[in-house]
Amino acid sequence: MILADKIIRLRKQCGWSQEELAEKMNVSRQSVSKWESANSIPDLNRIITLAEIFDVSTDFLLKDDIEAFDSLKEAIESGITQITLEQSLKYIENKVEVASLVTKGVVLCVCSVVPLFFFLAMAETNKLNLTSDVAAAIGVVCILVMVSIAISFFIRTNQYESDISVIENETFELAYGVHSVFKEKLQKFRNTYNLRLSVGISMFIVSSVPLIFVSMFFGGSDIILMMLIVLLLIIATGIYIVAPVSAEYGAYNNILKDSCTETEKSKHTKRAEKLAAFYWPLLVAIYLGWSLWTMDWGVTWIVWPVGSVLFAALVGLMELLDKENS
């Protein structure tokens, strides 16, 4: 295969037009067209740049006897799975879907007590003609329904395990050009990631401000319960903003990892996902058990802010212990 054919093949494998390749090479489209039609040959500096852009060796570009399928054959013989651009894009799509399901489950668990707090607040003010017992009963039913739906979301993530395991659990290498494509995608996505992460973290920080303000200047339990709803909704919104974008950012890094083994970041992400699927339903169970045992709903709400902080602490502790063991 001559150089012209290799340039065409690599460019199409990356999904670029001649104009896009020309822009990356800082040349005109006509120059790229001449290279691909074999009417001209790029100079040595251009060859080096092409090798860097396509993530291939200069030997591969310059030597006609080196074919792309030879690399694939070697990968198969050595037991290494070669990941194409289509497979990589599918992996990103699946990781985003898994993150979406996990996020919905966590948000439902966090918000499951919102109806309870609302009906208890209404019972305090007699606006809906509800007694505390009736309000608590309705709230508990809402909690059980929402947690059941959340668990169904966690279970549905299993359907994607086989599709993402090739990249996360098996030895692989990227096909020619895939690394450069995803490196560029990650560079473009980083601004979105940083923005949403900043917004989400800011929401976590300010989530307790309404509750603190009301506790300082107002004493009504109904108002405090409504501020607890605001706190949980702000936390849930922050999770909904941060979790999917973090999962997508981690997926890009998994594709671009230098080694063929699972990275530490992907391990931490999967551990956090598994912990979330177990932790939040357990926290709901603890809250219900304590509340129903004491019937002191005005005190047991403290489980939620404490539980949120504890979850972050547990994730950090897992990473710390993992570093010490390694």
Automatic annotation (TrEMBL):
Keywords linked to the UniProt accession: DNA-binding, Membrane, Transmembrane, Transmembrane helix
Keyword set includes Protein biosynthesis: no
Domain of life: Bacteria
Domain HTH cro/C1-type positions: 7-61
Record field: transmembrane: 98-122, 134-155, 193-217, 223-243, 275-293, 299-321
GO MF terms, alphabetically ordered: DNA binding
Pfam families, per database record: HTH_3
SMART domains (UniProt xref): HTH_XRE (SM00530)
PANTHER family listed in its UniProt record: HTH-TYPE TRANSCRIPTIONAL REGULATOR IMMR, TRACRIPTIONAL REGULATORY PROTEIN-RELATED-RELATED
The protein, known as: Helix-turn-helix transcriptional regulator
Organism this protein belongs to: Colwellia demingiae
